[in-house]
């Protein structure tokens, strides 16, 4: 790669400001330090990440089709595909940090990907509550995705608006650029608040369920499900995914707090550890402990889902997720009740 001025490159003047619309490669004037990232992304690491996210996408989709866990699998797969595209873009930047299209691809994909991945996480709480003990939850199971999914998308919209404001600032309007950055940070902070609320509600329910099933002596399907090894593994995997996604959002606040091109944004090791691998760990957990295998109550298949096998319907549960089922009997640890899905 050339590190000297190419033929025809205008001499540096006070009016020439290096940017993605004025630079196409690294040279004496368009130095790598002037890019937003400020470094050559590590090619090997980014190729590894792109492949890893691609594999997660393929495996999640395959298991989702096999076990018919539609909503969860579509959200996680779409998020992994975006992450794969983002790190493929960063691999391109490793050769040319001034490649504008690759820079935009990695920015958009790596911001949007975790939002879709979080949607998969939010869907699990609905089914966990509906399966184990809806009466122990502060809210009806179906209300969880109805609140958290739009809230998560709203965070993304706010960040997109901030990005639009920042982009419209151009090179000279520093104040408008700062306003755009503040809007982006507001969207990330809101995402942390939404994740925090999700964690709090999940913890409340799981602590209540733990107490309930510890003192509950009857051997019911719900009790057996709670004590099953696969259920425990699934819950721990979802908890681990939640923690790393929460850490990633906290990092994003710090990364954007100093504005574009600040020293945190230009530190690749912290980005790889606190952004890339946090999201990758979550995706690996979502893939390795897929609900179709470890928590079959989320499946739409009557060959997989125990409730569908018995012809049961749970309020806000797996049968209520856009499948058109009408009314049926549901069994819970507290007794039988008829509900409208």
From TrEMBL:
Main location: membrane
Location(s) in or outside the cell: Membrane
Residue ranges crossing the lipid bilayer per the database entry: 47-66, 73-93, 105-125, 146-170, 182-207, 233-254, 274-295
Gene Ontology CC: one annotated term: fungal-type vacuole
Keyword vocabulary terms for this entry: Membrane, Transmembrane, Transmembrane helix
Membrane topology annotation: Multi-pass membrane protein
Disulfide bond listed as a keyword: no
InterPro entries with a match to the protein in the record: RTA1 (IPR007568)
Highest taxon, organism lineage: Eukaryota
Name of the protein this chain belongs to: RTA1 like protein-domain-containing protein
Organism: Sordaria brevicollis
Lineage: Eukaryota, Fungi, Dikarya, Ascomycota, Pezizomycotina
């Amino acid at each position: 790669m050339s590190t000297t001025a190419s033929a025809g490159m205008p001499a540096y003047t006070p009016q020439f400001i290096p940017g993605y619309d004025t630079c196409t490669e690294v040279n004496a004037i368009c130095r790598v330090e002037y890019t937003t990232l400020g470094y050559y992304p590590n090619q090997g690491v980014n190729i590894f990440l792109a492949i890893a996210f691609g594999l997660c996408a393929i495996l999640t989709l395959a298991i989702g089709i096999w076990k018919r866990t539609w909503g969860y699998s579509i959200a996680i797969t779409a998020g992994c595909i975006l992450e794969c595209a983002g790190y493929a873009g960063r691999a391109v930047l490793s050769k040319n940090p001034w490649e504008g299209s690759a820079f935009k691809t990695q920015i958009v994909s790596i911001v949007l990907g975790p939002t879709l991945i979080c949607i998969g996480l939010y869907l699990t709480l609905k089914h966990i509550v509906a399966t184990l003990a809806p009466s122990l939850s502060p809210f009806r199971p179906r209300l969880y995705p109805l609140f958290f999914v739009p809230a998560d998308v709203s965070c993304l919209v706010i960040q997109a608006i901030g990005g639009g404001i920042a982009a419209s600032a151009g090179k000279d309007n520093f104040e408008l650029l700062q306003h755009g950055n503040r809007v982006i940070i507001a969207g990330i902070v809101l995402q942390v608040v939404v994740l925090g609320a999700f964690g709090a509600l999940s913890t409340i329910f799981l602590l209540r369920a733990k107490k309930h099933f510890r003192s509950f002596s009857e051997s019911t399907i719900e009790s057996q499900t709670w004590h099953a090894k696969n259920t425990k593994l699934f819950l721990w995997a979802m908890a681990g995914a939640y923690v790393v996604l929460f850490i990633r959002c906290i990092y994003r606040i710090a990364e954007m707090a100093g504005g574009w091109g600040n020293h945190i944004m230009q530190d690749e090791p912290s980005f790889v550890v606190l952004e890339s691998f946090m999201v990758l760990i979550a995706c690996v957990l979502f893939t390795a402990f897929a609900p179709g295998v470890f928590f079959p109550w989320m499946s739409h298949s009557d060959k997989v889902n125990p409730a569908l096998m018995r012809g049961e319907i749970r309020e806000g549960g797996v049968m209520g997720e856009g499948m058109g089922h009408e009314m049926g009997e549901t069994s819970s640890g507290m007794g039988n009740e008829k509900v409208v899905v």
